[in-house]
Design goal:
This protein is of the alpha+beta class. It is built from 27 helices and 32 strands.
Length: about 950
């Protein structure tokens, strides 16, 4: 019994530890899970893919409601209803003016942009008007108007819904994929659209960068200190792009850790070359062929519905011809109920796109030229994008590069998976293996300002901040050192002709922002005093990891010369304040920013502060250069200290000379840098941002649409629930197992009520609202639920009684063992008292008697009368018995045997016969000494003999703990 008890105690302790660890892990997981799920959205022109990552679940693509991995980026409105994806495409064939797609290249563009004109040409049936305030694109459908940001935001809301359904968690953070040629207007407008969708954008990542990141993640082991170069070629629905990237291991200067880095070195693109242009040409060809047949006098190009049908068939035909040499185009009832059928060969299709195929290699060549690399150093040319599957495109690329193309990427999902990895890296709650991305500036940005020359004439000065192919994110600083009064400067795109080659208009306004500085003279007058010299006005610019440009701050930099006396007079509190201001000023902790100076007397105006062109992507120190005098002083100190370290003799003479020199030496003044903020006002000049009242108005319209959708969803849910309950109740009343639980009146009442509701649903109730459906359902449930409850009781009672039987058997077994752990039966194992044993026995006996009596009474009753023995009654009895047993079990777990103290050993008698014993001052006792020599010490063996000679194991707490520690020594501590 002792052995068994020790094993039970140890097992119980181990079980408690495992339970605690498990609960700790679960609590940690729940905390992370509630805040960590994030998503990426590849919002393409034609398709939308959504990537998700959540705790415990690897990166994956979220499925839409049709269980597909990609969704058409189409949204449609009809009679107050709003649909997305394939439903919107289907509706768009019947009502093309109410279905909107291919929207991503319209965002951030004014109505006069060439890309808007191209969109109108491709889809002539849309009514596109100008926003009166922002001059951007607005779709008009009847009385309704939809801005481009609102339409994009609704698509992002759908993506959010898919992600939340996939992860089962709310999602508020995302990484959005954008084309690399998106300018400032497009990027800021997309962020505004995400805000409308209640999403926080962690980063806008370029599509080729996301693909390159995904490619590198799964080839991490192949990356080393030697740079490897790859070219990623993408042809999508709307555009074509190519990017040269490098993979290399690099050491982080701050953490001293080595991480793989993917850096974009060169980019080329053609923003109008893609599958959409091929599909439009095939659509127009089919329309011309239909008109030639002369089946109707109506021109097919004047009918929006017929054009939508031709466009859909052209898309299907284009995909089929990628794998077949010829195929039939077939449309039923194309126009005036006339069918259309035409055989189209791949050769004919390629003939329609001949000039497009001539442009296929241009983005690749541009990317190589921008990177400065030759084709022979490129390891592989990797394809992605849906239209790279076109055989003609692959043949052209293969012959151009003279090698096989790499097709080992998922052309549709590579960008989305790379972006979701980046989302996990940026979001809180995830720890991923670091993979650094460095993107490149496509459109250089410059600062333009006016400056008065020596002759008094004003001339315009340009300074490049972020040159072409500069890596970002990064910071830059420009110094205005000749302005003494309020002035302004402009931020513009630079050198666009070399990048866009005659397509500058597609980027919109060349001017980005106008910055006005105020209080310049006031700040100079109040701060430039004795011992204080102005070092110019420094403007800090930033290009963040989303490629969005911003002015961080503008400040007047001053240098104060402090003598030793003034420095000593400085109070302790001033020194502490200066130290704290330095800690929080960001001079030493912020990422160093490259300086671009306005130009001074010592420097030519076309040079930067460090004498290098700002096109160099490397970052230089933000702090001002050290004055020459300070440099000389530092050099002298350095030489002096070196001399001390190298000396070997004559130290006493040197010390004497040094002491004399120290008395005669002149104390060098200390230079302190001061900074004063200059107020600045930034006015964006490309597109009026969607903010303030404009944003609130759009958000209000979005909320109204959501409210309509929610009401529609609630009505559909209530109607389906009512119909399902009516059908289910009618079926169950015909089944014996349910009918036996109801009286004849109840069955008649349920059938009558179901029949009335069925007739109402198919007549007056077809247009009822959700409240009416929910009220009808509640009335029907009131009638039927009593019958359902009886059936449930009769079905569940046998299982509940079986569980009660098992509990009684277990309690009886425990009671038998517990009788041997009382003082009367086992004095050394007096765990339980007689009262406790008797209480448990009475609880078991009363439970058995109650069960037998109640079961007998219940069996006398019919199934359709009120239930006497309910499942709840049984579970209550089980709970009472369980409490009694648990009390004794817990007492057994906590019980420890009383350890008797061991008497000290008696000294042995060594005196020989006739010798006098030494008592050492102690009284000699005449009592007889009973000597006992046990076989083994009880505390060492863990056992002793009882009165009958049987071995009974004792439990030593220390030994038990040691035994337990031995079993669980190798564990993970949370």
């Amino acid at each position: 019994m002792g052995t068994r008890h020790r094993m039970c105690t140890t097992a119980g302790h181990t079980g408690r530890m495992v339970l605690l660890v498990t609960l700790s892990v679960m609590a940690l997981f729940v905390t992370v899970a509630n805040s960590a799920a994030v998503m990426s959205v590849d919002l393409g022109s034609e398709w939308m893919k959504v990537g998700v990552v959540s705790p415990g679940v690897p990166m994956e693509i979220a499925l839409n409601k049709e269980s597909k991995r990609k969704t058409p980026t189409t949204i449609a409105f009809r009679n107050g209803d709003r649909v997305f994806g394939e439903d919107a495409q289907t509706l768009g064939v019947r009502f093309p003016t109410n279905s909107f797609g291919y929207l991503v290249d319209l965002i951030g563009k004014t109505i006069d942009n060439p890309m808007v004109d191209l969109y109108r040409k491709r889809f002539p049936y849309y009514d596109i008007v100008e926003d009166p305030v922002r001059h951007t694109v607005v779709f008009r459908a009847g009385e309704e108007r939809y801005t481009i940001e609102e339409l994009i935001a609704q698509l992002l809301q759908v993506a959010k819904t898919y992600a939340e359904d996939s992860t089962g968690q709310p999602i508020s953070e995302c990484v959005l994929i954008v084309p690399g040629f998106y300018g400032q207007a497009e990027r800021t407008a997309l962020v505004s659209a995400a805000r409308l969708a209640n999403l926080k954008v962690l980063q806008l990542i370029n599509d080729y960068t996301a693909v390159a990141l995904n490619y590198g993640i799964f080839r991490r082991k192949e990356i080393n200190e030697t740079a490897q170069y790859f070219l990623f070629y993408d042809m999508g629905a709307y555009k074509t792009s190519a990017a040269v990237v490098s993979y290399q291991l690099a050491k982080d200067k701050a953490t001293r850790e080595t991480h793989p880095v993917v850096q974009v070195l060169g980019v080329g693109f053609d923003r109008t070359l893609g599958g959409l242009e091929m599909q439009v040409r095939l659509r127009d060809y089919l329309g011309q062929e239909f008109n030639k047949l002369g089946k109707t006098k109506t021109d097919v190009f004047t009918n929006p519905r017929a054009m939508a049908k031709l466009f859909k068939e052209a898309g299907r035909l284009k995909n089929v011809l990628s794998a077949n040499t010829e195929h039939y185009a077939q449309i039923e009832g194309l126009l005036d109920e006339q069918d259309f059928r035409l055989l189209v060969s791949r050769e004919q299709f390629e003939g329609l796109c001949k000039d497009l195929y001539d442009r296929v290699t241009a983005p690749l060549d541009k990317a190589l030229a921008a990177s400065g690399l030759a084709l022979d150093v490129i390891n592989q040319v990797v394809l992605f994008g849906g239209n790279t599957r076109v055989p003609k495109v692959q043949d052209i690329l293969r012959s151009h590069i003279g090698q096989e193309l790499a097709k080992n990427l998922n052309a549709d999902e590579a960008a989305c998976m790379g972006a979701v990895y980046r989302a996990a890296d940026l979001a809180t709650g995830f720890k991923v293996k670091k993979f650094i991305t460095k993107d490149a500036v496509l459109f250089p940005i410059q600062v333009v300002f006016d400056r008065e020359g020596e002759s008094g004439a004003t001339r315009q000065v340009r300074r490049t901040l972020f040159g072409s192919m500069n890596s970002y994110p990064q910071k830059k600083v420009i110094t205005f050192n000749k302005h003494t009064d309020d002035f302004e400067f402009t931020v513009q795109y630079a050198e666009l002709d070399s990048v866009l080659r005659g397509e500058t208009g597609t980027l919109g306004s060349v001017d980005l922002a106008r910055v006005k500085l105020s209080e310049v003279a006031k700040k100079l007058k109040s701060n430039v005093v004795e011992n204080v010299e102005s070092k110019g006005i420094k403007a800090h610019f930033m290009l963040d990891d989303s490629g969005i440009f911003s002015l961080a701050n503008v400040e007047l930099v001053l240098e104060k010369t402090v003598t030793k006396e003034e420095d000593e007079d400085e109070s302790t509190f001033q020194k502490i304040g200066n130290t704290i201001s330095k800690l929080f000023s960001g001079d030493s902790t912020d990422k160093p920013a490259e300086k671009v100076t306005e130009g001074g007397a010592e420097k030519d105006e076309d040079e930067t502060a460090d004498g290098k062109d700002a096109k160099d992507g490397k970052e230089s120190e933000e702090q001002d250069k050290q004055p020459p005098k300070d440099k000389e002083a530092d050099a002298a100190k350095y030489a002096k200290s070196d001399g001390k370290e190298g000396s070997t003799g004559g130290e006493s003479e040197k010390k004497t000379d040094e002491g004399a020199d120290a008395k005669n030496a002149t104390v060098k003044p200390k230079i302190v840098t001061l900074k004063e903020t200059i107020p600045s006002k930034v006015e964006l000049t490309y597109v009026v941002p969607l903010e303030g009242d404009l944003f609130d108005a759009s958000a209000k319209r979005m909320a109204a649409l959501d409210e309509v959708d929610n009401a529609k969803k609630r009505r559909e849910t209530a109607l389906n629930a009512l119909e399902s309950f009516v059908i289910d109740a009618q079926v169950k009343m015909d089944e014996e197992e349910y009918a036996s639980c109801a009286t004849e009146d109840e069955i008649a009442s349920i059938r009558q009520r179901c029949g009335e509701i069925s007739e109402w649903l198919y007549e007056d109730g077809s247009d009822a609202d959700a409240d009416t459906y929910e009220k009808k359902l509640e009335e029907l449930r009131t009638v039927a639920n009593e019958v359902y409850a009886r059936h449930w009781e009769h079905e569940e009672r046998p299982q509940a009684l079986n569980a009660l039987k098992q509990m009684i058997n277990g309690s009886e077994g425990f009671l038998r063992n517990a009788r041997n752990l009382t003082k009367d039966s086992n004095p050394e194992k007096d765990v339980f008292t007689a009262v406790e044993i008797e209480t448990l026995e009475k609880a078991i006996r009363s439970t058995i008697e109650w069960r037998d009596a109640e079961v007998a009474e219940q069996e006398k009753l019919a199934r359709n009368v009120a239930v006497r023995l309910t499942v709840k009654d049984i579970t209550d009895r089980m709970g009472m018995l369980d409490r009694e047993v648990k009390y004794l079990v817990n007492k057994l777990k906590l019980w420890r045997p009383k350890v008797k103290p061991t008497p000290p050993p008696k000294p042995e008698k060594t005196a020989k016969e006739g010798e006098k014993e030494e008592t050492s001052g102690e009284e000699k006792s005449d009592d007889p000494v009973l000597e006992q020599t046990p076989a083994k010490d009880a505390t060492e063996s863990g056992s002793s003999e009882d009165g009958n000679g049987a071995t009974v194991e004792d439990i030593e707490p220390t030994a038990t703990r040691k035994e337990h520690e031995g079993e669980e020594g190798d564990h993970t501590e949370l």
